[in-house]
Specification:
The chain is of the alpha+beta class and 181 residues long. The protein contains 5 helices and 12 strands.
């Protein structure tokens, strides 16, 4: 599930194509992410975004200094530099705040089905490449319009002792296969 502006170019593209790639940057990609701030793929730039200082940018990969790589299942490209990349397909959309005359139609919750996951080898657990090592993965987090990473672990979790296979859903094998049927 993702929550997103119903009025963004990203949402428009996702609803039009029925698919997307979720690229999860680490703290190492903060400069690239910041270069994308105040850019939009919408032309003309919507009035609300103009007031915030947005500008039209047709090639976000170039402006961010990132590399596009082909996806295996969906058409949208992945971002090579992001340590986690997830190809996903649209399942359903759910409007948010429909009871509010000022918010109606502005926010949508989108249900996605992840169909392929790519993990950079450097963040995988040594003995289990299907798991991310939380001591190696430092996701970039936006917290009240500011960039943050993670601090040190505050306490071990007993849930981490559960074997990964027990968390895998029935469609896990299909998402791991290299060929698309």
């Amino acid at each position: 599930m993702i929550g997103i502006s119903a009025l963004s170019k990203t949402t428009e593209n996702l609803l039009r194509t029925g698919e997307c790639v979720l690229n999860l940057p680490s703290v190492n990609e903060v400069a690239a992410v910041n270069r994308l701030a105040l850019t939009t793929g919408s032309k003309p730039v919507p009035e609300g975004k103009l007031a915030k200082g947005y500008r039209f940018e047709p090639d976000k990969f170039d402006i961010a200094g990132l590399s596009a790589v082909d996806s295996e299942i969906v058409v949208a490209p992945r971002v090579l530099e992001c340590p986690v990349q997830m190809e996903a397909q649209l399942v359903a959309t759910h409007p948010i705040a429909e009871e509010s005359s000022t918010q109606r139609g502005k926010i949508v919750s989108i249900e996605l089905k992840v169909v392929r996951v790519y993990l950079e080898e450097s963040i995988q657990m040594k003995d289990n490449p299907d798991r991310v090592d939380p001591d190696k993965w430092r996701p970039l987090i936006m917290n009240f319009q500011q960039f943050y990473g993670l601090g040190e672990q505050v306490h071990p979790s007993i849930l981490a002792q559960v074997p990964e296979q027990l968390y895998q859903s029935s469609d896990w094998k299909a998402a791991r296969e290299l060929s698309v049927e």
